[in-house]
Amino acid sequence: KNQVEQSPQSLIILEGKNCTLQCNYTVSPFSNLRWYKQDTGRGPVSLTIMTFSENTKSNGRYTATLDADTKQSSLHITASQLSDSASYICVVSGRKGGNAGNMLTFGGGTRLMVKP
Amino acid sequence: AAGVIQSPRHLIKEKRETATLKCYPIPRHDTVYWYQQGPGQDPQFLISFYEKMQSDKGSIPDRFSAQQFSDYHSELNMSSLELGDSALYFCASSLGGTIDGNQPQHFGDGTRLSIL
Predict the structure, then answer these.
(1) Are the CB atoms for A19 and A77 separated by under 8 Å?
(2) What are the φ and ψ backbone dihedral angles of A90, each rounded to 5 degrees?
(3) Please, are residues B92 and B30 in contact by the beta-carbon 8 Å criterion?
(4) CA distances (Å), A30 to each of A65, A66, A84, A100, B2, in order?
(5) Phi, psi (degrees; rounded to nearest 5) at B71
(6) Chain A residues whose C-beta sits inside 8 Å of any chain B C-beta
(7) DSSP conformational letter for A67
(8) Which residue of chain A comes nearest to B110, CA vs CA?
(9) What is the pLDDT of residue B100?
(10) Surface-to-core class of residue B89, CB atoms within 10 Å of its CB (0-12 exposed, 13-18 middle, 19+ buried)
(11) According to the model, what pLDDT value does residue A102 have?
């Protein structure tokens, strides 16, 4: 069964500090991995999309890494701001024609709270 | 910049009733995706459309149907509603995408459907 597991489930950090969120997946065959930020009651906002051949991708203070061999990804947030408080969701897409079910598997998210 | 518009934002129905959710994609986006997120659950992909034709199908119940119109907006029709259909329904749009593609999906803020 395809799974995407995120850790930690929740995290509290002080404003200005850095943090790293983890995502492990078992989806195969793999197409791409996305990180989304979701504020409470709002739709997810795309942060990064990485394919098999990409190891790292940045979007401002967000940097995602991908190790397709170990099926792990991380999202690093630099110099956190209060507005970074949200849920961060890792979504893995399987390739059509494979055994990846509906081809899109969501992680349970990490709830980040940034305190002043 | 224009975003994905979903209507209504909130909808309350009773069991066995029908409901129609609407999604207006970002201008010039030709692909629409529907997701269902139950309370405390991960989003589940339901169905997607590209250029007014069904593109990918996920875990959409037989009681639900959807279509994309000539102006690219999409409607999700839900019949014989059940208590378990209570969820947040997200629509996302992209330009020329499939569910296993690498195009960023832009999400709306969702329709919260409550079944009494």
Answers:
(1) yes
(2) -100, 130
(3) no
(4) 15, 12, 29, 8, 32
(5) -90, 10
(6) 31-32, 34, 36, 41-46, 49, 51, 89, 93-96, 100, 102-104, 106-109
(7) E
(8) A43
(9) 67
(10) buried
(11) 46
Most distant CA pair in chain A: distance in Å?
A: 48
Cα–Cα distances in Å, from A97 out to A30, A31, A101, B37?
Answer: 11, 11, 9, 25
Contact criterion met (CB < 8 Å) for A94 and B98: no
Measure in Å the smallest separation between the Cα of B107 and chain A Cα atoms: 5
Q: How many CB atoms lie within 10 A of CB A62?
A: 18
**Which residues fall within 8 angstroms of residue B5, CB to CB, at 6 or more apart?**
B23, B24, B108
| CA distance, residue A73 to nearest chain B CA (Å) | 17
Residue B70 DSSP code: T
| Structural tokens at position B6 | 């979903």
Residue B86, token pair as written in the block: 């209570």
pLDDT digits (tens, 9 = 90+) for A47-105: 999 988 899 999 999 999 999 999 999 999 999 999 999 999 999 987 765 544 446 78
Paired tokens of B60: 């959409």
* Cβ pair A102:B105 closer than 8 A: no
| Angle value at C-alpha B76, between B75 and B77, nearest 5 degrees | 110
Q: Do A104 and B58 touch (CB under 8 A)?
A: yes
